[in-house]
Amino acid sequence: MDKVGIIGGTGYTGSELSRLLCTHPEVELAALTSRQNAGKKVSDSQTFLKGYVDLAFTEKIGDTKDLDLVFVATPHGVAMDEVPQLIESGIKVIDLSGDYRLHDTAAYAKWYGHEHTDGENLQNAVYGLPELFRNKIKGAGLVANPGCYATSIILACAPLIKAGVVDNDIIADAKSGTSGAGMVPSPRLHHPFCGESVIPYSVGTHRHTPEVENAVEMFSNVGVKVTMIPHLLPIVRGILSSCYMDLKKDMSDEEVAAIFEKQYGGEHFIHYVKEPSIRAVVGSNHAHVSSNVLNGKVAAFGVLDNLVKGASGQAIQCMNLMLGLNETTGLDTPGLGV
Question: Fewest C-beta atoms under 10 Å: which of 49, 69, 125, 204?
């Protein structure tokens, strides 16, 4: 049985990793780090894990020996300090921050506001969206787990771009629950401010924008331009991205749907549906895609749980591939529905 660890075990993504991994039948959750909680039992701070995780937080991942794979669930800028030593030790790594998603150091500095210090691993990291890059993930030593918004937009747009039926200019109207902003409180996340409102933010500056452009181009060999407008929804989990593209020729709804069915018809976690629903996928690693043709355009939709398929579930899906396990192991549960 492979042993895995988590750097950053107390954030939302780290906690979600623990929730999913503690019942995974093929791996042992052997280590979780937290500088603030080092020495404390995991289940004392994360009470939903009582009876499932009998570990104490450690300060450093190196305090646990013989790990096969480590998840890095830290804010961006931290992972690049952790990853080189892990790779040098022969440990496989999945980074859930944004540190390894952009292969260009200049682009990273532009969008993240500071220099990247691990250019070699940045170049070698594999983008971890299994439905598009499965074969590369299988042989990877370092996987950059996709962002939540990025996953929903890419799943909705990439098949149409690759099929050559739409122009390369994508407008993405994306909406996410408040857990996507992380655990650190802010005025925007204060309930009286966001509880009964829909709030646009980071217009034109969201870091998932170049990530979408890069991933779609890698998949389709077509350069695209993404205009992304994210919004904060008064819900905890879930993303709905509505993506608008001009059709190059007249097409019916059925013809567009056939492109998605060709791409995702054999996928376990991606489902083409008539009416996508956040509640149908929340709590699961499943995602919905959908489309409608109108006035010479196509509206394509991507829906997922930002903490599962948009983060920790997708990371475990990549882990399964990297360790030679069945891709769905530990993840094969439906959404909550209500």
Answer: 204
Task: Confirm whether pTM is higher than 0.85.
Answer: yes
Compute the distance between CA of residue 302 and CA of residue 145 in angstroms, rounded to an integer. 17
What are the b/e assignments for 33-45, b being 16+ CB within 10 Å?
Answer: bbeebeeeebbee
Q: What pLDDT digit, counting tens, does each position of 45-84 carry? A: 999 999 999 999 999 998 888 999 999 999 999 999 999 9
Encode burial over 107-121: b for 16+ CB neighbours within 10 A, e otherwise: bbeebbeeebebeeb
Report whether 104 contacts 80 (CB < 8 A). Answer: no
Distance CA 210, CA 227 (A): 10
* Burial of 306 per CB tally in 10 Å (0-12, 13-18, 19+): buried
Percent of the chain with pLDDT over 90: 90
Contact 176, 206 (CB under 8 A): no
Q: Is 100 in contact with 125 (CB distance < 8 Å)?
A: yes
Residue 33, amino acid: T
The kind and range of the H/E element at 31 are strand 27-33
Dump pLDDT digits (tens) for 100-146: 999 999 999 999 999 999 999 999 999 999 999 999 999 999 999 99
Instruction: Specify the DSSP class assigned to residue 187.
Output: G
Closest CA to 283 of 322, 235, 326, 327: 235
Residues assigned a catalytic role = 148
DSSP string for residues in 8-27: STTSHHHHHHHHHHTT-TTE
Res 184 pLDDT > 90: no
Q: Is 153 helix (H, G, I), strand (E, B) or coil?
A: helix
Distance of CA 289 to the CA centre of its chain: 16
What the block records as the tokens of 329 is: 């192991």
Q: 136 vs 64, 213, 327, CA distance in Å? A: 28, 19, 14
Query: Which residues are CB-neighbours of 202 under 8 A, at least 6 positions away?
Result: 230
